[in-house]
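Folds abound. A case:
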Amino acid sequence: MHTALYNSYLLIETGTIKSNIRSILDSLPDGVKLIPVLKNDAFGLGLAPIAGLCAEFQEIDTIATSQIGEAVMLRRAGITGELLVLGGCPGFLNALVIEHDLTLAVGRRSLVASLASEAGVAGKKVKIEIKIETGLHRIGFKPGEELDDLINELSENSRHIEVCGAFSHFADTADETRTRRQYTEFMKGVEQLRANGVTLPRTHICGSAAYEEFREYSLGAVRIGRRLYMDSPSRPTGGVHEAASFRSYITNLRRLNKGDTLNYGGKYVCELDCVSATVGVGYGDGLNESLVKAKAPVLVGGKTARLLGCCMDQCQIDVTDIDCSVGDEVTFFGRDSFGNLLPSQQIALIAGDNEGCGLTSALGARVERIYR
Protein backbone atom coordinates (compact mmCIF):
# COMPACT_ATOMS: atom_id res chain seq x y z
CA MET A 1 0.00 0.00 0.00
CA HIS A 2 1.41 3.38 -1.01
CA THR A 3 0.16 6.84 -0.13
CA ALA A 4 0.07 9.88 -2.36
CA LEU A 5 1.92 12.46 -0.29
CA TYR A 6 3.26 10.89 2.89
CA ASN A 7 6.41 9.02 3.95
CA SER A 8 4.46 7.02 6.52
CA TYR A 9 0.97 6.05 7.55
CA LEU A 10 -1.08 4.68 10.40
CA LEU A 11 -3.31 1.91 9.07
CA ILE A 12 -6.51 1.81 11.12
CA GLU A 13 -8.67 -1.30 10.89
CA THR A 14 -12.21 -0.02 11.37
CA GLY A 15 -13.66 -3.52 11.42
CA THR A 16 -11.37 -4.43 14.31
CA ILE A 17 -12.42 -1.34 16.25
CA LYS A 18 -16.12 -2.14 15.75
CA SER A 19 -15.46 -5.71 16.83
CA ASN A 20 -13.67 -4.42 19.93
CA ILE A 21 -16.59 -2.13 20.76
CA ARG A 22 -19.05 -4.99 20.41
CA SER A 23 -16.90 -7.17 22.66
CA ILE A 24 -16.77 -4.44 25.32
CA LEU A 25 -20.52 -3.85 25.14
CA ASP A 26 -21.22 -7.55 25.48
CA SER A 27 -18.97 -7.76 28.54
CA LEU A 28 -20.71 -4.99 30.48
CA PRO A 29 -22.82 -5.92 33.49
CA ASP A 30 -26.55 -5.20 33.18
CA GLY A 31 -27.32 -1.51 33.42
CA VAL A 32 -23.74 -0.35 32.80
CA LYS A 33 -23.18 2.00 29.86
CA LEU A 34 -20.10 2.37 27.67
CA ILE A 35 -18.66 5.88 27.32
CA PRO A 36 -15.94 5.89 24.62
CA VAL A 37 -13.20 8.39 25.46
CA LEU A 38 -11.81 9.96 22.29
CA LYS A 39 -9.36 12.46 23.74
CA ASN A 40 -6.28 13.67 21.84
CA ASP A 41 -7.72 12.95 18.39
CA ALA A 42 -8.98 9.54 19.58
CA PHE A 43 -5.43 8.68 20.71
CA GLY A 44 -4.14 9.72 17.30
CA LEU A 45 -6.51 7.53 15.26
CA GLY A 46 -8.78 10.39 14.18
CA LEU A 47 -11.45 12.06 16.29
CA ALA A 48 -14.37 12.31 13.87
CA PRO A 49 -13.87 8.94 12.12
CA ILE A 50 -13.70 7.02 15.41
CA ALA A 51 -16.67 8.94 16.81
CA GLY A 52 -18.59 7.95 13.69
CA LEU A 53 -17.84 4.28 14.37
CA CYS A 54 -19.02 4.64 17.98
CA ALA A 55 -22.20 6.38 16.87
CA GLU A 56 -23.17 3.30 14.85
CA PHE A 57 -23.93 1.47 18.12
CA GLN A 58 -27.35 2.25 19.54
CA GLU A 59 -26.15 1.23 23.01
CA ILE A 60 -23.73 4.19 23.07
CA ASP A 61 -25.45 7.39 24.24
CA THR A 62 -22.42 9.40 25.29
CA ILE A 63 -18.96 10.10 23.86
CA ALA A 64 -16.31 11.75 26.03
CA THR A 65 -13.51 14.11 25.12
CA SER A 66 -10.93 15.87 27.26
CA GLN A 67 -11.31 19.39 25.92
CA ILE A 68 -14.19 21.59 24.80
CA GLY A 69 -12.59 22.17 21.41
CA GLU A 70 -12.63 18.43 20.71
CA ALA A 71 -16.34 18.22 21.53
CA VAL A 72 -17.12 21.22 19.32
CA MET A 73 -15.29 19.51 16.45
CA LEU A 74 -17.51 16.47 16.91
CA ARG A 75 -20.65 18.60 16.85
CA ARG A 76 -19.44 20.19 13.61
CA ALA A 77 -18.78 16.69 12.26
CA GLY A 78 -22.42 15.77 12.84
CA ILE A 79 -22.27 13.88 16.15
CA THR A 80 -25.63 14.57 17.82
CA GLY A 81 -25.51 12.45 21.00
CA GLU A 82 -24.32 13.56 24.41
CA LEU A 83 -20.74 14.85 24.48
CA LEU A 84 -19.08 14.79 27.89
CA VAL A 85 -16.01 16.99 28.39
CA LEU A 86 -13.88 15.46 31.16
CA GLY A 87 -10.97 17.90 31.48
CA GLY A 88 -10.44 21.34 32.95
CA CYS A 89 -12.18 24.26 31.26
CA PRO A 90 -10.73 27.75 30.71
CA GLY A 91 -13.53 30.18 31.59
CA PHE A 92 -13.50 31.95 28.22
CA LEU A 93 -14.88 28.76 26.61
CA ASN A 94 -17.98 28.57 28.81
CA ALA A 95 -20.28 29.98 26.15
CA LEU A 96 -19.35 27.15 23.77
CA VAL A 97 -20.57 24.58 26.30
CA ILE A 98 -24.05 26.07 26.09
CA GLU A 99 -23.99 26.85 22.37
CA HIS A 100 -23.09 23.25 21.44
CA ASP A 101 -25.12 21.51 24.16
CA LEU A 102 -22.13 19.90 25.86
CA THR A 103 -21.93 18.24 29.28
CA LEU A 104 -19.04 19.77 31.20
CA ALA A 105 -17.06 18.38 34.12
CA VAL A 106 -17.18 20.82 37.03
CA GLY A 107 -14.11 20.59 39.22
CA ARG A 108 -13.41 24.03 40.70
CA ARG A 109 -15.22 26.64 42.76
CA SER A 110 -17.29 29.34 41.03
CA LEU A 111 -17.50 27.44 37.74
CA VAL A 112 -21.14 26.52 38.35
CA ALA A 113 -22.05 30.16 38.97
CA SER A 114 -20.18 31.24 35.86
CA LEU A 115 -21.90 28.62 33.71
CA ALA A 116 -25.29 29.47 35.16
CA SER A 117 -24.75 33.12 34.32
CA GLU A 118 -23.93 32.25 30.69
CA ALA A 119 -26.91 29.91 30.52
CA GLY A 120 -29.22 32.56 31.93
CA VAL A 121 -28.24 35.00 29.21
CA ALA A 122 -28.98 32.32 26.62
CA GLY A 123 -32.22 31.30 28.32
CA LYS A 124 -31.05 27.70 28.65
CA LYS A 125 -29.83 25.15 31.17
CA VAL A 126 -26.24 23.93 31.09
CA LYS A 127 -25.46 20.25 31.70
CA ILE A 128 -22.68 19.34 34.10
CA GLU A 129 -21.04 16.35 35.77
CA ILE A 130 -19.40 16.75 39.16
CA LYS A 131 -15.78 15.67 39.42
CA ILE A 132 -15.04 14.25 42.88
CA GLU A 133 -11.39 14.45 43.93
CA THR A 134 -10.15 11.12 45.27
CA GLY A 135 -6.39 11.22 44.81
CA LEU A 136 -5.33 12.23 41.30
CA HIS A 137 -5.28 15.92 42.34
CA ARG A 138 -6.06 17.58 39.04
CA ILE A 139 -9.60 18.96 39.16
CA GLY A 140 -12.44 18.05 41.49
CA PHE A 141 -14.02 18.55 44.91
CA LYS A 142 -12.92 16.58 47.95
CA PRO A 143 -15.75 15.03 49.98
CA GLY A 144 -16.50 17.15 53.01
CA GLU A 145 -16.15 20.92 53.09
CA GLU A 146 -15.27 21.33 49.41
CA LEU A 147 -18.32 19.35 48.27
CA ASP A 148 -20.48 21.29 50.74
CA ASP A 149 -19.38 24.52 49.07
CA LEU A 150 -20.32 23.07 45.67
CA ILE A 151 -23.70 21.91 46.98
CA ASN A 152 -24.45 25.47 48.11
CA GLU A 153 -23.35 26.82 44.73
CA LEU A 154 -25.62 24.34 42.97
CA SER A 155 -28.55 25.34 45.17
CA GLU A 156 -28.02 29.01 44.41
CA ASN A 157 -27.89 28.38 40.65
CA SER A 158 -30.28 25.45 40.22
CA ARG A 159 -32.49 27.27 37.73
CA HIS A 160 -29.87 27.07 35.01
CA ILE A 161 -27.94 23.91 35.96
CA GLU A 162 -28.74 20.28 35.12
CA VAL A 163 -26.59 17.73 36.98
CA CYS A 164 -26.08 14.63 34.83
CA GLY A 165 -23.81 12.70 37.16
CA ALA A 166 -20.60 12.47 39.16
CA PHE A 167 -17.28 10.80 38.41
CA SER A 168 -13.72 10.34 39.53
CA HIS A 169 -10.57 8.73 38.15
CA PHE A 170 -8.16 6.17 39.58
CA ALA A 171 -4.53 7.21 39.93
CA ASP A 172 -2.81 3.81 39.91
CA THR A 173 -4.77 0.62 39.24
CA ALA A 174 -1.60 -1.40 39.87
CA ASP A 175 -1.99 -0.45 43.53
CA GLU A 176 -5.06 -2.37 44.73
CA THR A 177 -5.09 -0.75 48.17
CA ARG A 178 -4.96 2.78 46.78
CA THR A 179 -7.60 1.93 44.20
CA ARG A 180 -9.96 0.57 46.84
CA ARG A 181 -9.36 3.66 48.98
CA GLN A 182 -10.18 5.95 46.05
CA TYR A 183 -13.37 4.04 45.30
CA THR A 184 -14.45 4.34 48.93
CA GLU A 185 -13.71 8.07 48.89
CA PHE A 186 -15.70 8.50 45.68
CA MET A 187 -18.74 6.73 47.10
CA LYS A 188 -18.44 8.92 50.21
CA GLY A 189 -18.71 11.96 47.94
CA VAL A 190 -21.62 10.44 46.01
CA GLU A 191 -23.54 9.82 49.22
CA GLN A 192 -22.81 13.34 50.44
CA LEU A 193 -24.28 14.79 47.25
CA ARG A 194 -27.35 12.58 47.35
CA ALA A 195 -27.94 13.25 51.05
CA ASN A 196 -28.08 16.94 50.23
CA GLY A 197 -30.65 16.54 47.49
CA VAL A 198 -28.37 16.40 44.44
CA THR A 199 -29.74 13.86 41.96
CA LEU A 200 -27.04 11.87 40.14
CA PRO A 201 -28.43 10.03 37.10
CA ARG A 202 -24.99 8.56 36.38
CA THR A 203 -21.85 7.72 38.39
CA HIS A 204 -18.59 6.34 36.98
CA ILE A 205 -14.95 5.89 37.97
CA CYS A 206 -13.48 3.10 35.79
CA GLY A 207 -11.32 3.70 32.74
CA SER A 208 -9.90 0.93 30.55
CA ALA A 209 -7.34 -0.40 33.03
CA ALA A 210 -9.72 -0.20 35.97
CA TYR A 211 -12.45 -2.00 34.05
CA GLU A 212 -10.00 -4.79 33.21
CA GLU A 213 -8.87 -5.18 36.82
CA PHE A 214 -11.80 -4.04 38.97
CA ARG A 215 -15.10 -4.70 37.21
CA GLU A 216 -16.85 -4.62 40.57
CA TYR A 217 -16.39 -0.83 40.46
CA SER A 218 -18.22 -0.40 37.13
CA LEU A 219 -21.16 1.54 38.68
CA GLY A 220 -23.41 3.10 36.02
CA ALA A 221 -20.86 3.53 33.23
CA VAL A 222 -17.27 2.80 32.24
CA ARG A 223 -15.05 5.19 30.29
CA ILE A 224 -13.07 3.27 27.68
CA GLY A 225 -10.29 4.83 25.61
CA ARG A 226 -7.25 2.60 25.10
CA ARG A 227 -9.29 -0.62 25.17
CA LEU A 228 -11.10 0.42 21.99
CA TYR A 229 -7.83 -0.29 20.14
CA MET A 230 -5.76 -2.72 22.23
CA ASP A 231 -5.81 -5.05 25.23
CA SER A 232 -4.11 -4.66 28.60
CA PRO A 233 -0.30 -4.51 28.28
CA SER A 234 0.41 -6.58 31.38
CA ARG A 235 -2.58 -8.90 31.83
CA PRO A 236 -4.61 -9.11 28.63
CA THR A 237 -8.19 -10.14 29.24
CA GLY A 238 -9.04 -10.98 25.63
CA GLY A 239 -11.89 -9.86 23.45
CA VAL A 240 -10.11 -6.90 21.84
CA HIS A 241 -7.40 -6.82 19.20
CA GLU A 242 -4.72 -4.50 17.86
CA ALA A 243 -6.41 -2.01 15.55
CA ALA A 244 -3.63 0.24 14.21
CA SER A 245 -0.26 -0.24 12.50
CA PHE A 246 2.46 2.40 11.99
CA ARG A 247 4.46 1.87 8.80
CA SER A 248 7.02 3.66 6.67
CA TYR A 249 9.54 2.79 3.93
CA ILE A 250 13.26 2.30 3.43
CA THR A 251 14.76 5.26 1.56
CA ASN A 252 18.43 4.22 1.46
CA LEU A 253 20.82 1.38 2.32
CA ARG A 254 24.44 1.83 3.39
CA ARG A 255 27.26 -0.41 4.63
CA LEU A 256 28.82 0.90 7.82
CA ASN A 257 32.09 -0.03 9.46
CA LYS A 258 32.78 -0.60 13.12
CA GLY A 259 33.38 2.82 14.68
CA ASP A 260 31.27 4.79 12.18
CA THR A 261 28.86 7.26 13.77
CA LEU A 262 25.26 8.10 12.95
CA ASN A 263 23.41 11.42 13.03
CA TYR A 264 24.19 14.76 14.63
CA GLY A 265 26.84 14.69 17.30
CA GLY A 266 27.72 11.08 16.57
CA LYS A 267 25.14 9.88 19.09
CA TYR A 268 25.41 6.29 17.87
CA VAL A 269 28.70 4.52 17.26
CA CYS A 270 28.62 1.26 15.30
CA GLU A 271 29.87 -1.56 17.48
CA LEU A 272 30.31 -3.90 14.46
CA ASP A 273 30.29 -3.73 10.69
CA CYS A 274 26.65 -3.58 9.62
CA VAL A 275 24.14 -2.62 6.96
CA SER A 276 22.02 0.41 7.87
CA ALA A 277 18.66 1.18 6.27
CA THR A 278 17.46 4.77 6.40
CA VAL A 279 13.69 5.10 6.93
CA GLY A 280 11.67 8.21 6.10
CA VAL A 281 10.36 9.10 9.58
CA GLY A 282 11.88 10.54 12.73
CA TYR A 283 10.94 12.12 16.02
CA GLY A 284 9.24 14.94 14.09
CA ASP A 285 6.68 12.38 12.97
CA GLY A 286 6.21 11.08 16.51
CA LEU A 287 8.76 8.26 16.62
CA ASN A 288 9.69 7.91 20.28
CA GLU A 289 13.41 8.53 20.77
CA SER A 290 13.44 6.25 23.81
CA LEU A 291 12.86 3.37 21.40
CA VAL A 292 16.06 4.25 19.58
CA LYS A 293 18.07 4.30 22.79
CA ALA A 294 16.67 0.86 23.62
CA LYS A 295 17.36 -0.48 20.09
CA ALA A 296 13.70 -1.44 19.86
CA PRO A 297 12.54 -3.93 17.23
CA VAL A 298 10.81 -3.11 13.95
CA LEU A 299 9.58 -5.44 11.22
CA VAL A 300 11.15 -5.54 7.76
CA GLY A 301 10.00 -8.19 5.30
CA GLY A 302 8.50 -10.18 8.15
CA LYS A 303 11.80 -10.20 10.04
CA THR A 304 12.95 -8.28 13.11
CA ALA A 305 15.41 -5.42 12.69
CA ARG A 306 16.65 -3.00 15.36
CA LEU A 307 16.59 0.78 15.55
CA LEU A 308 20.02 2.39 15.42
CA GLY A 309 19.54 6.15 15.30
CA CYS A 310 16.95 8.88 14.90
CA CYS A 311 16.74 12.54 13.94
CA MET A 312 13.75 14.78 13.22
CA ASP A 313 12.86 13.42 9.80
CA GLN A 314 14.69 10.11 9.39
CA CYS A 315 15.83 7.10 11.37
CA GLN A 316 18.19 4.17 10.79
CA ILE A 317 17.72 0.47 11.41
CA ASP A 318 20.14 -2.44 11.38
CA VAL A 319 19.25 -4.77 8.48
CA THR A 320 22.57 -6.63 8.31
CA ASP A 321 20.98 -10.07 8.09
CA ILE A 322 17.82 -9.06 6.21
CA ASP A 323 17.38 -9.15 2.42
CA CYS A 324 15.69 -5.82 1.70
CA SER A 325 15.62 -2.96 -0.81
CA VAL A 326 14.80 0.72 -1.05
CA GLY A 327 11.01 1.07 -0.97
CA ASP A 328 10.44 -1.91 1.32
CA GLU A 329 7.96 -1.50 4.15
CA VAL A 330 9.03 -0.97 7.77
CA THR A 331 6.50 -1.55 10.57
CA PHE A 332 7.17 0.15 13.91
CA PHE A 333 4.21 -1.42 15.70
CA GLY A 334 1.04 -3.28 14.78
CA ARG A 335 0.82 -5.74 11.89
CA ASP A 336 2.95 -5.71 8.78
CA SER A 337 1.59 -6.51 5.32
CA PHE A 338 2.51 -10.17 5.84
CA GLY A 339 0.29 -10.43 8.93
CA ASN A 340 3.12 -10.48 11.50
CA LEU A 341 2.28 -8.68 14.75
CA LEU A 342 4.58 -6.39 16.72
CA PRO A 343 2.24 -5.38 19.57
CA SER A 344 2.10 -1.67 20.36
CA GLN A 345 1.87 -2.57 24.04
CA GLN A 346 5.20 -4.39 23.85
CA ILE A 347 6.81 -1.41 22.14
CA ALA A 348 5.28 1.01 24.65
CA LEU A 349 6.83 -0.87 27.55
CA ILE A 350 10.23 -0.60 25.85
CA ALA A 351 9.70 3.16 25.63
CA GLY A 352 8.91 3.35 29.33
CA ASP A 353 5.20 3.97 28.75
CA ASN A 354 2.55 1.69 30.19
CA GLU A 355 0.08 1.75 27.30
CA GLY A 356 0.47 1.63 23.53
CA CYS A 357 -2.04 4.42 23.01
CA GLY A 358 0.77 6.80 23.94
CA LEU A 359 2.56 5.75 20.75
CA THR A 360 -0.40 6.45 18.47
CA SER A 361 -1.20 9.69 20.31
CA ALA A 362 2.28 11.01 19.54
CA LEU A 363 2.06 10.54 15.78
CA GLY A 364 1.93 13.87 13.98
CA ALA A 365 0.15 15.24 10.94
CA ARG A 366 2.86 13.98 8.55
CA VAL A 367 1.71 10.43 9.29
CA GLU A 368 -1.27 9.78 7.03
CA ARG A 369 -4.28 8.02 8.57
CA ILE A 370 -5.69 5.29 6.35
CA TYR A 371 -8.98 3.62 7.32
CA ARG A 372 -9.59 0.08 6.09
In short: The mean pLDDT is 94. The longest strand covers residues 244-256.
